[in-house]
Design a protein that fits this description.
Elements: H1 4-9, H2 16-22, E1 30-32, E2 38-40, H3 42-47, E3 55-61, H4 71-84, E4 89-93, H5 98-102, E5 110-111, E6 114-117, H6 119-123, H7 129-149, E7 156-161, E8 165-167, E9 177-179, E10 190-192, E11 194-196, H8 201-208, H9 212-220, E12 223-227, E13 232-234, H10 241-248, E14 255-259, E15 264-267, H11 282-291, E16 294-298, H12 303-318, E17 324-329, H13 331-337, H14 350-356, H15 358-368, E18 374-379, H16 386-399, E19 402-406, H17 408-411, H18 417-427, H19 443-455, E20 459-462, H20 464-476, E21 485-488, E22 508-517, E23 522-527, E24 546-547, E25 553-554
Parallel strand pairs: 3-16, 3-17, 4-15, 4-16, 8-11, 17-18, 18-19, 20-22, 21-23
Antiparallel strand pairs: 1-2, 2-14, 5-6, 6-14, 7-12, 9-10, 12-13, 14-15, 22-23, 24-25
Length: 557
């Protein structure tokens, strides 16, 4: 079968001006980045403010495995299938990070015949949004160190600087570093850290900001350090928010591209769901709701991470209410949850499937706790047997969940028609949307609610350092306790232990660190062994990527 990049190269793309014209976007409201991608400027966003909203559909998945679940592929295919049914649908996705592209995961523009294009551009530098975020983040870091060098008027304790540098590549050697070494003019020596760009608070801020003014205010509210006498120092105290906003003035504008079947797609922002809030930008999602009758968006990793954060953080902050949720599952992934090693996943194994199916059941139960209609998308692989597919159908029937086979990877929109029809029906069903916790609950109560109701934990314990930080946050300002929580947790398990597959119960969730993201307006809760700077695998994807003298890229997924 052809590779994703080969399929993408054969696509007959329309000029992005034609895609925009179908959406009613004028040339003056479009900022071109070549022939096939563009940004939509604020003039159009303001012009569409009073339009009625379409239906909002969230696509999520069971816990990811090395076998792959195809959440983005399903999202893209669903949008294309809806348009084949004569529905006005648009897709709203996150931008890929260079870390996974050159690391272990590969590209993130869908797959097979359900992709967004131009695939190479999207997976590489795209419109430069991530570079702008990296630059803005590291500008603030440079201004912090410069303040120390120039006399430290604010009295910043260099041992208590909490804002760190970022880069958009997996580089484990940068997790813990020492800066300022050398002569006196080289800066104040201190310990520092790097995170991957998608974990930056600025990424979260960009994705949650409603306007340029809101972006600047949120940037100013970033907590960067504490003084020697324990007082907080914010970005605004360094007067860095203006210059940072200047770097981000274009990055905040949503990006417009298309699918292989010329369905419009907005791709904007890209926080990971295992270490951040895992959703595309509020601006892109709200714009999608104005542009189409059906706006289809996704949240990263499994429903315990991306979907929970989409619902408890993004929907709460932006006033969004989904009309239906699509839960992607595969035979292969459920067999993996049942104890089958990756090399043997192509073999029929009903016993393992029955053991691993509890993961699917857990996610169906969890999504229903939010009061939303759920449709299970069974993403078909060529090795799936009829007996295995029938078993998953029976699981869905036993849970009272709608379901449909999805074959969009091999057939594009045609392979998602059944799924599209089920989702359209689900959007018309009654819903009783509510959050998993209320804003007036304490931070500990919010953590307990997610840990017990979504993950299935029996208890939560805190490292001493986490309790100390929690007390400091609560003492800084009462409003911080009203913020939602953003749990950083392994994506491979409902628990905080990647080895606990299926549906673990009775475990204790361990909170090892708590951080205040005052600009993003949520509390980051780090659990288990999760890291905010991934490393490269033994054989990274980068070793297979190349480009010839004509500029043709190979090996990109």
């Amino acid at each position: 079968m052809k590779t994703d990049i080969e399929i993408a190269k054969e696509a007959v793309m329309l000029p992005i001006t034609e895609i925009a014209d179908k959406l009613g976007i004028t040339d003056d409201e479009l900022e071109l980045y070549g022939k096939y991608k563009a940004k939509i400027n604020d003039a159009f966003l303001k012009r569409t403010e009073d339009r009625p909203n379409g239906k909002l559909i969230l696509v999520t998945a069971i816990n990811p495995t090395p076998a792959g679940e195809g959440k983005t592929t399903t999202t893209v295919g669903l949008g294309m299938a809806m348009n084949r049914l004569g529905k006005n649908a648009i897709i709203a996705l996150r931008e890929p990070s260079l870390g996974p592209v050159f690391g272990v995961k590969g590209g993130a523009a869908g797959g097979g015949y359900a992709q967004v294009v131009p695939m190479e551009d999207i997976n590489l530098h795209f419109t430069g949004d991530f570079h702008a975020i990296t630059a803005a983040n590291n500008l603030l870091c440079a201004m912090i160190d410069n303040h120390l060098q120039q006399g430290n008027e604010l009295g910043i304790d260099q041992r208590r600087i909490v804002f760190t540098r970022v880069t958009d590549t997996n580089d484990r050697a940068l997790r813990n570093i020492t800066v300022g070494l050398g002569s006196r003019v080289d800066g104040i020596p201190r310990q520092d850290h790097f995170m991957i760009t998608v974990a930056s608070e600025i990424m979260a801020i960009l994705c949650l900001a409603e306007s340029l003014d809101d972006l600047k205010t949120r940037l100013g509210n970033i907590l960067v350090a504490y003084t020697y006498d324990g007082k907080p120092v914010f970005c605004r105290d360094l007067n860095a928010q203006g210059s940072m906003t200047a770097l981000l003035k274009d990055a905040i504008k949503p990006n417009l591209v298309q699918t292989l079947e010329n369905t419009p797609a907005l791709i904007h922002g890209g926080p990971f769901a295992n270490i951040a809030h895992g959703c595309n930008s509020v601006r892109a999602t709200k714009l999608a709701l104005k542009l189409a009758d059906y706006a289809i968006t996704e949240a990263g990793f499994g429903a315990d991470l991306g979907a929970e954060k989409f619902l408890d953080i993004k929907c709460r902050k932006a006033g969004l209410v989904p009309d239906a949720v699509v839960l992607v599952a595969t035979v292969r992934a459920l067999k993996y949850n049942g104890g089958v090693a990756k090399p043997a996943l192509a073999e029929e194994n009903l016993d393992a499937l029955k053991v691993g199916a509890v993961n699917l059941e857990a996610h169906i139960d969890n999504l229903r706790k939010f009061g939303l209609p759920v449709v299970v998308a069974i993403n078909r692989f060529g090795t799936d047997t009829d007996a295995e597919l029938d078993y998953i159908r029976q699981i869905c029937i036993s849970k009272g969940a709608d379901f449909a086979l999805s074959d969009v990877f091999a057939k594009g929109g045609e392979g998602g028609m059944e799924l599209a029809e089920k989702v359209i029906e689900a959007c018309e069903r009654p819903k009783d949307f509510h959050f998993m916790y209320e804003s007036d609950m304490s931070i500990k109560e919010k953590i307990s609610a997610v840990a017990t109701k979504i993950y299935g934990a029996a208890d939560v314990k805190y490292d001493a350092s986490a309790l100390k930080t929690l007390a400091e946050i609560e003492a800084l300002d009462p409003k911080y306790s009203t913020f939602p929580i953003c749990v950083a947790k392994t994506q491979y398990s409902l628990s905080d232990d990647a080895a606990k597959l299926g549906r673990p119960t009775g475990f204790t969730l361990t909170v090892r660190e708590i951080k205040l993201s005052a600009g993003a307006e949520f509390i980051v809760v780090l659990t288990g062994a999760i890291m905010t700077m991934p490393g490269l695998p033994k054989k990274p994807a980068a070793v297979s990527i190349d480009v010839d003298n004509d500029g043709n890229i190979t090996g990109l997924f």
